[in-house]
Structures are given as structure tokens and as C-alpha cells.
Amino acid sequence: MKHRKITTNQKGFTLIELLVVVIIIGLLASLVAPKFFGKLSQSRIKAAKAQIELLGAALDEFRLDNGRYPTTEEGLEALRKKPEGLENWAGPYLPKDIPKDPWGHDYVYKSPGEHGDYDLMSYGRDGEPGGEGEDADIVSWK
Fold this sequence. Notes:
mainly alpha; Glycoprotein, Type 4 Pilin; 1 helix; 142 residues
């Protein structure tokens, strides 16, 4: 009689091994995620500052051509469409539509401003004046 040798050479992971791996991945994610999202919020703040600078340059070009900044009523739209009564308007001063801030809100423009010839700002993530961190206002005069 021949004896067959039965081997149980099955390879795989036990439930405990899988749980250990999942826990390790969870711990790593909890360490990396806050740093990643912190960088994301800083990127949005930097993008808003850069957009405000670009809009400021377009506003300065408008002023050079027309002798004044757009009024609050004309708003930033005056950079794209000629307001009535301006003979020297040489726009559009922006190549594309007026951007929204990185959180999807409109920029707030006032002219004359309280801090200079004009005030241009983003209210941050919450879209409301004031706030801290990512909710803080990003302004043209600082």
C-alpha cells in the first residue's frame, strides 16, 4: 500500500496579520494626513494672495489708461467689459473671466478703499469677514 503524503503547504495571511497591517496603515495615515491637509490649506492661501496680486496689477493697468480705478459699482467686471463713459479703456485687462478665490467665493472689491485707493480681499474658506487660519481674510493692503 502506497502512502501518500498530504502536505498543507498553503500560503496566506492570518486574520491577525491582516489586522496588524491595517492598524499600521491607519497609524501612518493619521500621522501623514494632517500634514498633507495643512499643506493644502497653505496652498489655497498662497493661491489667493497670488490672484490678488494679479488682479492688483490689472487694476493698476486700468488706472494708467483711465486715470482712476474702477468704482465699487463697476467692480472687477470693469477689467473685462468697458464701463460707460471711459474713452481710454484699452481692455480687457484680464485674459480670462474674473477668477473666484480658491474656496469658490467672489473677491470683494471696494474703491475708494479704507486702506488705499482700493481694497481687494478674499474672506477665506468661510466666506465671512474675520476668522483665523484658513478662514482668515486675505487682503491686498498687507
